[in-house]
Design brief:
375 residues; alpha/beta; 7-stranded parallel β-sheet; 6-stranded parallel β-sheet; 16 helices
Amino acid sequence: MKILLLHSSSDEYGASKILLGTVRILQQQGHLTWVVLSATGPLVPALEAAGATVLIERLGILRRKYFTPGGMMNRFLHIHRAKKKLAAFIQQEEINLVYSNTTGVLAGALAARDCGIRHIWHVHEIIEKPVIFKKILGRLLRHYADGIIAVSTAVKNSWQEVVPAEKITVIHNGIDYSPYLTANTPIRKELGIPDDTLVIGMAGRVHYWKGQQYFISIAGELHKKNPRLRFLLAGDAFPGYEYLYDEMKEQIQTLGLSEVVQWIGFRKDIPAVMQTIDLFLLPSQQPDPFPTVILEAMASAKPVIATHFGGAVEMIESGVTGDLIPPDRADIAADVINSWLDPNKLQQAGQAARKRVLEKFSWEAWEDKMIKFIT
């Protein structure tokens, strides 16, 4: 089968890792894959190494910054142009199936409809506002998808307000856990962190809803009670959100955390980052659909504390593999985290987390379900 896959970014974060995994299993099954991205980036060589042919074409990706009359007109023009080019490519290469990864990509759905071929939409987002935008996307999902994959029950529940529930299939993400199971190269020495110091860490794109600033607020509360704790932040910013760097640096300084919070930017060696921390914290400010980084932390045998909504609720076994916290009370969050900071408890919960991720969110189960659904 000839399959055209479209994706909304060229980074190596959550949804991009799922796209890469999808390409790998399709190639292993003997299918031919082309991937269209809007820009070059670190994802490109990874896709090419997996066997895909990568094409760069402006797809008119939908992002919140375009939610203005002028911005939507801009998107409409780019999506229309991309649709025409994709339709021509589909006909030229005799593509059998179009797969769109994330609801930010619309051109593939429109081109597939024009060419009369099957289209699958892989939905990673929970969109609550603006309501009119969600209704428009819901209409497109209803009429321009022959199958819809939701990455969590939380995602399905969100979209079934505007899309028939029977049209949405939940397939929990899975990743290749082997790098996290065998990693034994923590970067404490590089960062100057003593071996006997507890480290609370977070990894993810810097964005207002990802919760880095809430992480820092929680660190401030924890530092008052335990000044020996260290805090580690990894990740770079979504394009257009670089201004958050300055806000975060100012917040760290204002709270007197300059000596205990380290922000190391984008890292490729996430298994090593995970081995460096003792507890993983993901304080998202909006429902995070199914955070791949939680899978990585759990596979690394780290307990996870996350805000109480989105896919995290399905991933964490509260009180066993981690815990859930409110999204707006740093003092309460700090109290919950403090209750976990016993080395024996951390180790026991970490092992339970690893066992849970390998049994409930296995790579093999994800592979099997994805292949059956797509092909």
